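User: Could you check the structure of this?
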Amino acid sequence: MLIGISGLITPDIYRVMYQAGHLDELVIADANYSAFAMGNNVVYSETNRNDFLLSEILKYFPVDDDRDNPIKVMSLEDSIYEELPLMWDIFQVALNESAINKIDIYPINRSDFYRETLNAYAVIKTCDCRPHSTLIIRKGMVLECDRS
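Assistant: Sure, the predicted structure tokens are below.
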């Protein structure tokens, strides 16, 4: 155990966050997401709250602000749901509380979402079973490195 380090982020998650480069993407995948079919670099978090994990990740992981839509969710086309998922609001609250600049989640169609997860640097598989609790985060640049 270490002091001040989130228990939601495993050593493997810290590793993939650190190793990912500018414009690499991380997927926070819910319990229903087929992580191994959609990515070769799969790590785990036992959290059942992807919004909590997102908030913790954003403390360390810079979000890309050079391009549009650095945070993506799967759109509702062909969905059984008639209303926007509650998870989208929950993710937006986490982003608003964590982000330096205003970042909105952006829905993309199912096939584009799966294609992007196939090309993601890593997939973080969680125990969150809430519908529509999977999202993609694109890494930005770290502009200053502490060399002390």
